[in-house]
Design a protein that fits this description.
Blueprint (H helix, E strand, L loop, with lengths): L9 H30 L9 E6 L5 H11 L3 E2 L3 E2 L8 H9 L4 E10 L2 E8 L4 E4 L7 E4 L5 E4 L9 E5 L13 H15 L5 E6 L4 E6 L4 E5 L4 H13 L13 E6 L2 E8 L7 E8 H7 L1
Parallel strand pairs: 1-5, 6-9, 9-10, 12-13
Antiparallel strand pairs: 2-3, 4-5, 6-7, 7-8, 10-11, 11-12, 13-14, 14-15
Length: about 290
């Protein structure tokens, strides 16, 4: 009896080879996906703890919660964001930076499964308010940089600034470092003589209007040194004509025009009538009178 050999035609052979290759590829891909899936979830390769360092008033648990939130989820539904080699460092940095009062944020993986988040905290030095009477203000740091919204504060906890012609916005600079330092020094010098400052109003041409607690205003120029402004004011107050002046019994003292000083006094009178007395003099005249 003759052996019968069944022959497979060429097309079928090609098809079988393609199926075999396809199954091999699927197997390899499945193996790779499985390796990635389980490999990236090994405890030795997974971020397990977050350390927070820095700041004085910001609660670390709030920062940690935000960081942990960025570590949740996966990339493409496969690789967890906690995978140590691919954790979202930039996203974490941006998230922590978005917290008001924080800056100079650094995120570092010091150990295989631990990341350290450090930051500096802005310290409020003054307030930048939308208006003298308004309650909407921003915190300003020691450089004059507006870094965050301030709650409605009463009393004189912080010196208040108003800048005409410019909206108070987070990220803006109230004034140059030199000008800001000069105005803060002036407020401190005045406080040393019991003339306490509540507001400082800046205009766009360099004039400064200083509101005194109890009433009254000093008009000065930003380019004048704090020491010179105080010297001129004390000279006026030492004169016989104006020795009675104190916070609350004058409208303004204008020191913007060098040696020429303008003093406007508002005199307390009965409600049915109002009288205003004005006087002007020069530093030389005042000095020569004494």
């Amino acid at each position: 009896m003759k052996n019968r050999r069944r022959l497979i035609d060429a097309d079928t052979l090609v098809l079988l080879k393609q199926i075999g290759i396809g199954l091999l590829v699927i197997g390899v891909v499945a193996l790779v996906f499985s390796a990635i899936w389980y490999g990236t979830r090994l405890s030795v390769l997974t971020i397990s703890s977050v350390h927070i360092e820095g700041g004085e008033t910001v609660r670390h648990d709030i920062v940690r919660e935000k960081v942990e939130g960025r570590l949740e989820g996966t990339y493409l539904g496969l690789i967890p964001k906690r995978f140590a080699w691919l954790y979202p460092k930039e996203e974490i940095t941006e998230t922590v930076n978005s917290i008001e009062r924080l800056h100079n944020v650094k995120v570092v993986r010091k150990r295989r499964t631990e990341i350290f988040v450090t930051f500096d905290e802005y310290r409020p030095r003054a307030l930048w308010c939308k208006s003298v009477e308004g309650e909407e203000c921003l915190f300003v740091d020691t450089t004059g940089y507006a870094f965050g919204s301030a709650p409605k504060l009463s009393g004189g906890s912080f010196l208040r600034f108003v800048k005409n012609g410019e909206e108070a916005e987070v990220g803006n600079q109230l004034a140059s470092q030199a000008e800001f330092d000069s105005l803060l020094m002036l407020a401190d010098l005045l406080a040393g003589h019991d003339w306490y400052v509540s507001h400082i109003e800046l205009d766009q041409v360099g004039d400064v209007f200083i509101k005194i607690v109890g009433g009254g205003e000093l008009k000065v120029v930003a380019s004048e040194s704090p020491e010179k402004i105080l010297e001129n004011l004390l000279t006026v107050l030492a004169s016989e004509d104006f020795s009675h002046i104190k916070p609350g019994n004058f409208q303004y003292i204008d020191l913007r025009f060098g040696n020429k000083v303008f003093v406007n006094e508002e005199i307390a009178v009965p409600e049915e009538e109002t009288a205003i007395e004005s006087a002007s003099s020069t530093i030389e005249d005042i000095t020569s009178d004494n």
